[in-house]
Design goal:
The complex is a heterodimer of chains A (434) and B (157).
Chain A: H1 8-14, H2 41-48, H3 63-75, E1 80-84, H4 87-98, E2 104-108, H5 113-125, E3 129-133, H6 138-144, E4 149-155, H7 167-176, E5 181-184, H8 189-192, E6 202-206, E7 220-224, H9 236-239, H10 250-254, H11 258-271, H12 277-287, H13 290-309, E8 314-318, H14 328-334, E9 341-346, H15 355-366, E10 371-372, E11 382-384, H16 396-401, E12 408-412, H17 418-433
Chain B: H1 6-15, E1 18-22, H2 31-41, E2 45-49, E3 55-56, E4 59-60, E5 74-77, H3 84-93, E6 98-101, H4 108-116, E7 120-122, H5 127-135
Parallel strand pairs in B: 1-2, 1-5, 5-6, 6-7
Antiparallel strand pairs in B: 3-4
Classes of the chains: A alpha/beta (434), B alpha/beta (157).
């Protein structure tokens, strides 16, 4: 077999899946089973001791789920990956594997609302404190670092703030402190951005979004780079005998995929947010066409952004693909496209300042085929009003820090024909401004 | 020959079936024991080499490579990088086909010496992880095996 660095379009179709050993099936079989038989008592002992690799129980690993894990790890240029039941579960698993009570996190302020809540409320309950900083300023991350900081967390492209993180600058700062950089790469998808190439150590995904692409299935992934020095003295859970897994020293035993093994055998195994084989299969059907879809999402979104900017009923447009976006140059350096997400404000019009919010709601209610819901990354064009939905659990200061203005409309531009998308936007704006 | 090529590693692990494990521990939770038990389970003959033990994994343990009465294919080294030189000399002397230095073991002089003697040489890799990567198993742990193929895998080991 010739060695070759295959391109993303090829990896999206082939990585992690060769024809089935038993049947020769070319497409991926769905191994819909909870459990796997042992060859013998000794084989069972070896599997439980992690002395051999294999499947025991589908909460830990499953052949169909493994195909998705390897494929996304390959697309990210990572060493290994582990799947979870949702993107939030992936983020929780990544953080819970590396953190313990008394640790501190430095996180971007411009985060998906669920991520803010996890850090500011749920992990705080377990004694893990988070400082939120301006994601556009790498120095703000450095200023917030403490002796007990054990993770830096940010989105490569903020949802819905559309802030672009300078991954290389923040990674370099984190590494100078001996701390890993964890990147949520959901909005660009691995086709548009590979955070590991810029120094990120752990990448998490909501595969529910662009990876799946069809809006039918929830899933998440954690991918590790394989290059973080977990033996730097700050992560005893990686180097000392594991009390949760009968004394295994994960870093010594598994080396450059030790984080993934520990995430799987300690965190996934205990907290149980495993991905079902059926769901993994459905996500993989989407992954095969990820490169094609992302190209169209990007070109449609750019056309929508340009159209909205010229529209008299629109007060502002935020899309990093526009040349005058303050982070356009950074986006071009880190990404192959600005993805399908954009935000804009509807002009207040005759109703005065408060009319911005009211007109935004009217716009959403006037759309014909653009769907009012809170997902992103679907084939369908999706519209939402974050201030009243995804970010309503945040107070106004938190919402503004997350990049959410009261009049903001978020569009996840789909794959319909661009003429039809622009038509629906125009007729909805006309009704909103009437 | 670049020993990190997939094809080379596949050939080594297909053809070389007797592995002398230098520095094998009898402690079940040590990486050397993990690796040797795994390879034994895949049908390889494991020959322990460690002066501290008489028997490991049901196999007689030898003090030195030169004491082993059967033909050895791979000399798998779980020792410090500085200790590999004499082990490489012994590997050449007993007619082994491959010197395999485990993860973290990177003796470049030993690598060059065994290559000059016509042997295969692998550095800074785990024999268990590479076997699992190329013949299945590691894939189930979510690892990026870099295997892209439309061929049905053959049963192995």
């Amino acid at each position: 077999m010739a060695d070759r660095a295959f391109k993303p379009e090829t990896l999206a179709i082939h990585a992690g899946q060769i024809p089935d050993r038993e049947t020769g099936a070319r497409a991926l079989p769905i191994y819909q089973t909870t459990s796997f038989v042992f060859d013998s008592a000794d084989h069972a002992a070896s599997l439980f001791n992690l002395q051999t690799f294999g499947n025991v129980y589908s909460r830990l690993s499953n052949p169909t789920v493994a195909a998705l894990e390897e494929r996304v790890a390959a697309l990210e240029g990572g060493r290994a990956g582990v799947a979870s039941a949702s993107g939030m579960a992936a983020e929780a698993m990544a953080l819970m594997t590396m953190l313990q009570s008394g640790d501190h996190v430095v996180a971007a302020g411009a985060l998906y609302g669920g991520s803010v809540t996890m850090l500011a409320v749920n992990l705080r309950k377990f004694g893990i404190e988070t400082s939120f900083v301006d994601a556009t300023n790498p120095d703000a991350f450095a200023a917030a670092m403490r002796p007990n900081t054990r993770a830096v967390f940010a989105e490569s492209l903020g949802n819905p703030s559309l802030v672009v993180l300078d991954i290389a600058a923040v990674a370099e700062m984190a590494h100078a402190h001996g701390v890993p950089l964890v990147i949520d790469n959901t909005v660009p998808s691995p086709f548009l951005c590979n955070p590991i190439a810029f120094g990120a150590d752990i990448v998490v995904h909501s595969a529910t979004k662009y990876l799946g692409g069809h809006g039918t299935t929830l899933a998440g992934l954690v991918v590790e780079s394989g290059t973080f020095p977990w033996d730097n003295g700050k992560f005893p859970g990686m180097t000392e005998p594991s009390p949760g897994y009968h004394g295994v020293k994960f870093f010594e035993t598994f080396g450059d995929f030790a984080f993934t093994m520990r995430c799987r055998m300690e965190t996934l195994r205990v907290y149980g947010a495993a991905l079902s084989p059926q769901s993994a299969w459905q996500i993989l059907q989407g992954v095969e066409t990820l490169p094609l879809r992302m190209e169209r999402h990007c070109s449609n979104a750019l056309a929508v952004a340009q159209h909205l900017r010229a529209h008299p009923a629109v007060s502002w447009v935020n899309y990093p693909g526009l040349e005058d976006h303050p982070q356009h140059a950074l986006m071009k350096r880190q990404m192959h496209g600005a993805s399908g997400l954009l935000a804009f404000g509807v002009k207040p019009g005759a109703a005065g300042a408060a009319g911005g919010l009211a007109n935004g709601v009217k716009f959403i209610e006037s759309a014909q085929f653009m769907s009012h819901l809170v997902n992103i990354g679907d084939t369908r064009t999706l519209i939402s009003h974050p201030a009243s939905t995804t970010h309503r659990q945040l107070d106004e200061a938190q919402a503004l820090a997350a990049g959410v203005r009261p009049d903001m409309i978020r569009i996840s531009v789909g794959l319909e024909h661009i003429d039809d998308i622009l038509w629906d936007i125009d007729q909805a704006l006309a009704q909103a401004s009437a | 020959m670049a020993a990190d090529e997939i094809s080379t590693l596949r050939r080594i692990l297909r053809e070389d079936r007797t592995i002398a494990v230098v520095g094998l521990s009898a402690e079940w939770h040590r990486p050397s024991y993990f690796a040797a038990k795994y390879m034994q389970g895949k049908g390889y003959r494991i020959v322990p080499v460690n002066p501290r033990y008489d028997e490991i994994l049901g196999e007689r343990c030898y003090k030195r490579l030169e004491d082993i009465p059967i033909k050895v294919d791979i000399v798998d080294v779980f020792r410090r990088t500085d200790d590999v030189g004499p082990i490489a000399d012994s590997a050449i002397a007993i007619g082994a086909r491959c010197l395999w230095q485990q993860i973290g073991v990177k003796n470049a002089a030993a690598d060059a010496k065994v290559r000059a003697a016509g042997m295969d040489s692998v550095m800074d890799r785990c024999v268990k992880i590479e076997h699992a990567r190329l013949f299945g198993g590691l894939h189930w742990a979510g690892v990026n095996t870099k295997v892209i193929s439309a061929k049905r895998p053959v049963h192995h080991g």
